[in-house]
Design a protein that fits this description.
Strand content: 15-25%
Order of helices and strands: EHEHEHEHEHEHEHEHEHEH
CATH topology of the largest domain: Rossmann fold
Number of strands: 10
CATH architecture of the largest domain: 3-Layer(aba) Sandwich
CATH class of the largest domain: Alpha Beta
Number of helices: 10
CATH superfamily of the largest domain: Response regulator
Mean pLDDT: 85
Number of domains: 2
Strand order of the largest sheet: 2-1-3-4-5
Radius of gyration: 19 Å
């Protein structure tokens, strides 16, 4: 395969639709097709993918459920996913955004629109590799998407909605900064940071951490300061304030 071309996974329960999409994309990408969400999940466990095109209305496992499963696999944490569907009602559109989709195309999709979207996401992902990487951890996916919209023009943003998955990511990756929600199940922000600090002490490499919290009462502040974060910020936070604080932590 030509490594300068994006590797695109197309997921649909309609074999004819898969062939059409492959025909449209073959001039500009290396295309893999998966008949249904389960086959797609099995494929990404063993192969790297640059962009995923995902149908919503599929039996057994619809597109939203498939995307949720993708985001719980370390191989797909930050792979762009575009929904390609015949549904255009407000609920479906809004849910695709809430679930963390990176685009939305209506069937029958036009060849030029499809190629443009795939190349746009692929080039954006390649360009982002030269930027500093920020890992945002929060159990609220809608808030993660808001943070991503604040930061994506300046940083490579990885969003993860569970501490368990965040630990898996950090085992193999070292971001330049971590944005960490305080109120999370399993581990709160302070507990997570204490574990992260111990891990990084062993590796002799500290990662700057900013804790975000919707509650900054005396007990929360005490727990946060004990974990020694680089900053503690109150939710909700404006884009300007977040960018300013990140710049101060990264460039003291």
């Amino acid at each position: 395969m030509d490594t300068s071309r994006p590797k695109v996974l197309v997921v649909d329960d309609d074999a004819q639709q898969l062939e059409i999409m492959k025909l449209y994309l073959s001039p500009i990408a290396d295309v893999i097709t998966a008949l249904g969400g389960q086959r797609a999940l099995e494929y990404v466990q063993c192969h790297s993918i640059d962009v995923i095109l995902l149908d919503i209305n599929m039996p057994a496992m619809n597109g939203f459920k498939t995307l949720e499963r993708f985001r719980n696999q370390k191989e797909c944490i930050n792979v762009p996913v575009v929904f390609v569907t015949g549904q255009r009602d407000r609920y479906t559109v809004m849910n695709s955004i809430f679930m963390g989709g990176d685009g939305y195309l209506i069937k029958p999709v036009q060849k030029d629109d499809l190629q443009k979207k795939v190349l746009e996401l692929y080039r954006s992902r390649k360009t982002s590799s030269a930027r500093k990487t920020i890992l945002a951890i929060d159990d609220d996916m809608a808030y993660l998407k808001l943070i991503d919209s604040y930061l994506k023009d300046m940083y490579n943003v990885v969003i993860i909605n569970s501490t368990k998955l965040a630990f898996s990511y950090l085992m193999k990756n070292t971001p330049d900064l971590v944005l960490l929600d305080y109120q999370m199940p399993l581990y709160n922000g302070a507990s997570f940071l204490n574990i992260l600090n111990r891990k990084k002490e062993e590796e002799d490499h500290a990662i700057p951490v900013i804790i975000l919290s919707g509650t900054l009462d005396k007990e929360t502040l005490k727990n946060c300061y004990a974990a020694n974060p680089d900053a503690i910020l109150a939710k909700p936070i404006s884009k300007e304030d977040l960018l300013d604080n990140i710049a101060q932590v990264l460039n003291p």
